[in-house]
Amino acid sequence: MTRPTRNTTTRDKHRSYLRRTKPPCALCNQPIDYSLHYRNPMAYVVDHIIPIARGGEDSLDNIQAAHRSCNESKGAKLHEELAAAAAPRTYVTARTW
């Protein structure tokens, strides 16, 4: 599978658009401090709703604002996969010692 080409000028315009509108993190819904250094875990990054690794496009319709740490924990998962992973687990043990 070939990776789609990514235009850096278009990417920078999309990032600027999101930065101007200052939305909260799309993954945890907490506010983002847009003035933080880009290496800070709570800094603003662009998250692809459908990851490029999964065939998503690098378009304005497919990006959202996120914290660096939230985006790194999401990885290349889809929203449905995140919801399933966040569901509470039930552990059943029937041991008699």
Total E-strand runs: 2
Total of DSSP H or I helical runs spanning 4+ residues? 3
Mean pLDDT, all residues = 86
- Along the chain, the helix and strand elements come as HEEHH
Range of strand content: 5-15%
Output the CATH topology. Answer: DNA Binding (I), subunit A
Radius of gyration: 17 Å
State the share of residues found in helices, binned by percent: 25-40%
Specify the biggest β-sheet. 2 strands, antiparallel
Shape: elongated
How far apart, in Å, are the first and last alpha carbons? Answer: 53 Å
Report the CATH C-level class: Mainly Alpha
Low-confidence stretches: none
User: What would you call the structural class?
Assistant: alpha+beta
In CATH, the architecture is: Orthogonal Bundle
- Strands of the widest sheet, in order across it, are 1-2
